[in-house]
Design a protein that fits this description.
By secondary structure, this protein is mostly helical. 71% of the residues lie in helices and 0% in strands. The two termini are 13 Å apart.
Length: 427
């Protein structure tokens, strides 16, 4: 049943694209058809995934496949690092199993595996065939060409750096709008390796947590595409109608050569990503330390995430959160933007039933499920600096706007979910 609270969420569905239009590089080229289509596609996907039993089972199978890839990666990680990677046999008593989840051992190694696999698939010409197939689908739905369409689909499950790896040979030939689109969608979605972690964090406080997190990453892709097209509109004249012919741009002597060189490329990305994360998180901690020297405000120390929480309170309300809970929800958005979604999910899991309602918890799960945060700015600059070094300057110039687009894309997703009947998720 459609209620007033559902109508409240429609404010976010309209407001968020309008905010992006105000920041657009070409306000006269608003993609009206794409805007209506993206919102409708998100709503339809949620109805399908939660209201149609076979589709729900299929999502479970896809999640199992992603888990299989992650599990296979962990076998290699545990062989090299032993109990440090969270394997059985720790030489100490484990009182908090969640503490065994270490970013360096669970997320970064997936990049190595994806790099090696993508090089092998490129050598076998499978990626080129997949590119043409995805191009046929997305050309009719979202107006994307084959290469960015494939990268967008891969990003939904593999992550913001791993997805573009699948089309590394095409990155230099993409238009500026297409490159921005990949940055934005990458920050609007999450990776398969983190979906399991988020679901584990929310398992005790949110029914069907895995389904919600996986769905959130999937349906945020259309929102990311829409907001990217609004912020940096496409120029059809720059997009060639014929398929890009990049034969010979990336060649390998054999399958083994492809695996070895792919792993080597992945190692460069892993090192850049890890180093950048350390620096960015440290800088935020330093900034909060300096703000902590100021007198407390309203009985609490001043911090970057707290200030952003105040700023985001109206946005939380527009997504459908009741005003009495909007301050708490806005703070979660601030934590997500500054200290990554991991910290925000942990904070959401700690909120008792009396602090936020079940509906607010569902809405915030979708709003927080994305890589759009300050640390991801460094991750993308580092990752794309290796993948397509000649366009690093363009990435640096666009990455902050892409972070905003990705952040608002998850908020738009949350608004669409909030506009749907709550009974759909209880079924």
């Amino acid at each position: 049943m459609f209620r007033l609270e559902n109508a409240q969420s429609l404010v976010g569905v309209v407001l968020i694209p309008a905010l992006c239009w105000m920041l657009s590089e070409a306000r006269g080229r608003f993609p009206w058809r794409l805007a209506l289509g993206a919102a409708a596609a998100q709503a339809a996907l949620v109805w399908l995934l939660f209201g149609f039993s076979p589709a729900r089972s299929l999502m479970s199978d896809v999640g199992s496949a992603v888990d299989g890839l992650t599990a296979a990666t962990q076998v290699g990680v545990k062989f090299v690092f032993g109990f440090l990677a969270g394997s059985a046999g720790q030489p100490y008593a484990v009182t908090d199993p969640s503490a065994l989840y270490v970013f360096a051992f669970h997320v970064l190694p997936v990049i190595l595996v994806i790099c090696a696999l993508s090089a092998l698939l490129w050598h076998w010409r499978i990626l080129r065939w997949l590119t043409q197939g995805f191009g046929l689908v997305f050309e009719k739905t979202m107006g994307l060409r084959g290469p960015p369409a494939l990268a967008t689909a891969a990003t939904v499950f593999m992550g913001q750096v791993e997805g573009p790896i699948f089309i590394r040979g095409y990155l230099a030939a993409l238009t500026r709008s297409e490159l921005f689109l990949l940055l934005t969608v990458g920050m609007a979605c999450v990776s398969g390796s983190t979906v399991v972690a988020y679901a584990t964090i929310l398992r005790g406080v949110l029914p069907n947590a895995a389904a919600h997190v996986l769905t959130a990453s999937l349906i945020s892709a259309p929102a990311g595409i829409l907001l990217a097209r609004i912020l940096v509109p496409r120029d059809p004249a720059l997009e060639r109608a014929e398929p890009l012919d990049l034969n010979g741009t990336k060649t390998y002597e054999s399958s083994i050569d492809a695996l070895i060189k792919g792993a080597g490329d992945g190692l460069q990305i892993v090192l850049n990503v890890a180093a950048t994360l350390v620096v960015f998180v440290a800088l935020i901690a330093m900034a909060d330390g300096l703000l902590g020297l100021l007198p407390p405000l309203a009985g609490a120390p001043i911090s970057i995430e707290r200030g952003l929480g105040v700023v985001f309170t109206p946005l939380a309300w527009a997504m459908g959160v009741p005003w009495r809970e909007a301050g708490t929800a806005g703070s979660l958005l601030g934590v997500k933007l500054v200290l990554t979604e991991f910290s925000a999910f942990f904070d959401l899991a700690k909120l008792g039933p009396g602090v936020v309602s079940d509906r607010t918890r569902v809405i915030m799960t979708y709003a927080l499920c994305g890589f759009a945060n300050i640390a991801s700015v460094g991750i993308n600059v580092a990752g794309y600096g290796v993948l397509v070094a000649e366009r690093r300057g363009e990435v640096v110039a666009m990455v902050w706007k892409a972070m905003l687009g990705g952040f608002l894309a998850t908020c738009m997703t949350a608004s669409v979910v909030g506009a749907l009947p709550a009974a759909l998720f209880a079924a």
